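sry for the spam today, last one i promise. C-alpha cells for design, 421 residues
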C-alpha cells in the first residue's frame, strides 16, 4: 500500500490543502507550526478513524469551523487507486467511505490497510503506562486478525461483568455468585493471553534485529511480555484456582487483579547471551565468537534481566526502541498479509545522533513507503535527498503560524461537496 495523495479540509491548521507523496522515502520539511505533524495525523485519521494524539476529536477541527474532512488516495500493489474519505462533525459523529462505500466499523477500516506512525506522543509506548502498551499491541493485532479482536472484546466484557459482581459481593452479595463469572473470565483471559503471548513472540526477533540495526554500538535489545498468566501456564483450571485464592483481596478492592488486563511490555538492553537464537549479530567474529569491544572505563555489567529502557534509557534509545517496534510490526504485517504498508514518522531525527540517523535512513530503504517530517533538511545527506520526494511546507491552504482562524474570505458556509457527512 502506498499513500499517493492527501487532502485536508478544516483539519487542524489546514483550511483546504492537498499534497502528493512518492512511493519510497518522502521528506516533509518545514519550520515549527507549519503543519508537519498535522499532515501525518490526518493520514492516520483517514486510515484508522482516530487520532494518535488526542481522544477529543473536536480538537481536529479548524478553529471557527463546523466540521473536519480528510480525503486520502491510496494505491495497492494489485489494485486501482482508492479514495478513503473521513468526515467528522460534533453532534453528528463520524462517517467513513472507502471507494465511495460506507465503512461499517473502525475494525473494518483498520483491517483494510497497514500503516505505522511515530509522533512525539509515541514515546509514551516506552515511558508511559502498561495500559498504553497493551492498547497499542491489541490495536495492531486486531487489524491483522479478527479473532484477536474478538478475544479482546470478550475479555473486556467478562472483566466488566466480573468487576461488577466483585463490587456486589463486597456490598453483601453471596460470594458463590462469583463462580460463573470466574469461569467466563478465565476462558476469555486464557484466550486473549495466549494470542498476546504468540504476538509478542512473533515480534521479538524482528524487534531485536531492527533495534540492533538502529544502534551504532554493539548493544543488544529485547522485547518481552510480562504476563501474570505465565505463572499458571495459560491453563484454565490453574487460573481458576488462582482466582479463588485471590478472591478475598479482589472482593476488598472490587477489582480483578490477576489476568492479561495487567500485562506489560518491556523494552530491554540485554547481554549478548540473551540475544535471540538464530538472529544475525554484526559483532561476531567469523568463527562465531563475540568481538572484543574494549570498554575504556572497565567492564560494566547490565542488571540481571536487562536494562529497562523505560527507567534507564536515554531519549534517543527510547525513540529508537519505538521505531524498532514499528519496523517489527511492519515486517510481521507484511509476512501475514502481503501488504508492507506505510511508515509515518514525525520529527524522528531531532533526538537521534548522526550515526543513528544514517542507520535509520538506510533501514527505511527496504521498508517501503516512509513519510518523515523534519525542521532541518540537513539531517539528511544530499544523496539521501536526491532519492527522496521532498515536500516543502507551508502548503497553499494552510493557516499562517499562530493564526487562530482562517482569513475572513474563507469562513463562509462550506459548499455541499465539502460537507463532512
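last one done:
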Amino acid at each position: 500500500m502506498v499513500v499517493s495523495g492527501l487532502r485536508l479540509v478544516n483539519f487542524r491548521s489546514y483550511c483546504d490543502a492537498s499534497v502528493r507523496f512518492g512511493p519510497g522515502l518522502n521528506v516533509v520539511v518545514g519550520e515549527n507550526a507549519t503543519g508537519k505533524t498535522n499532515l501525518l495525523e490526518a493520514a492516520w485519521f483517514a486510515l484508522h478513524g482516530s487520532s494518535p494524539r488526542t481522544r477529543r476529536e473536536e480538537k481536529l477541527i479548524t478553529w471557527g469551523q463546523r466540521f473536519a474532512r480528510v480525503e486520502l488516495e491510496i494505491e495497492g500493489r494489485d489494485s486501482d487507486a482508492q479514495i478513503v474519505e473521513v468526515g467528522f462533525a460534533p453532534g453528528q459523529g463520524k462517517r467513513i467511505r472507502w471507494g465511495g462505500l460506507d465503512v461499517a466499523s473502525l475494525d473494518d477500516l483498520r483491517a483494510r490497510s497497514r500503516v505505522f506512525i511515530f509522533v512525539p506522543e509515541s514515546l509514551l509506548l516506552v515511558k508511559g503506562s502498561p495500559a498504553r502498551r497493551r492498547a497499542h499491541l491489541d490495536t495492531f493485532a486486531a487489524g491483522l486478525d479478527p479473532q484477536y479482536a474478538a478475544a479482546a472484546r470478550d475479555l473486556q466484557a467478562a472483566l466488566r461483568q466480573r468487576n461488577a459482581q466483585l463490587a456486589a459481593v463486597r456490598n453483601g452479595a453471596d460470594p458463590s455468585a462469583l463462580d460463573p463469572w470466574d469461569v467466563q473470565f478465565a476462558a476469555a483471559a486464557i484466550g486473549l493471553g495466549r494470542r498476546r503471548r504468540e504476538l509478542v513472540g512473533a515480534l521479538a526477533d524482528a524487534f531485536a534485529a531492527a533495534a540492533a540495526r538502529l544502534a551504532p554500538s554493539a548493544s543488544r535489545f529485547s522485547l518481552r511480555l510480562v504476563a501474570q498468566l505465565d505463572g499458571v501456564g495459560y491453563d484454565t483450571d490453574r487460573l481458576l484456582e488462582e482466582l479463588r485464592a485471590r478472591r478475598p483481596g479482589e472482593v476488598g478492592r472490587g477489582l480483578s487483579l490477576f489476568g492479561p488486563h495487567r500485562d506489560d511490555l518491556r523494552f530491554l538492553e540485554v547481554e549478548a547471551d540473551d540475544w535471540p537464537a538464530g538472529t544475525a549479530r554484526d559483532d561476531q567474529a567469523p568463527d562465531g565468537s563475540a568481538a572484543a569491544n574494549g570498554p575504556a572505563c572497565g567492564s560494566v555489567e547490565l542488571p540481571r534481566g536487562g536494562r529497562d529502557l523505560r527507567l534507564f534509557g536515554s531519549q534517543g534509545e527510547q525513540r529508537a526502541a519505538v521505531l524498532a517496534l514499528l519496523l517489527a510490526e511492519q515486517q510481521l504485517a507484511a509476512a501475514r498479509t502481503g501488504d508492507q504498508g506505510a511508515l509515518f514518522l514525525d520529527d524522528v531525527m531531532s533526538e537521534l545522533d548522526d550515526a543513528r540517523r544514517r542507520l535509520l535512513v538506510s533501514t527505511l530503504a527496504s521498508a517501503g513507503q516512509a513519510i518523515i517530517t523534519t525542521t532541518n533538511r540537513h539531517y539528511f545527506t544530499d544523496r539521501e535527498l536526491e532519492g527522496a520526494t521532498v515536500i516543502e511546507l507551508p502548503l497553499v491552504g494552510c493557516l499562517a503560524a499562530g493564526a487562530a482562524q482562517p482569513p475572513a474570505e474563507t469562513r463562509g458556509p462550506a459548499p455541499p461537496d465539502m460537507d463532512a457527512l
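Residues 6 and 19 are 5 Å apart (CA to CA). ok im logging off now
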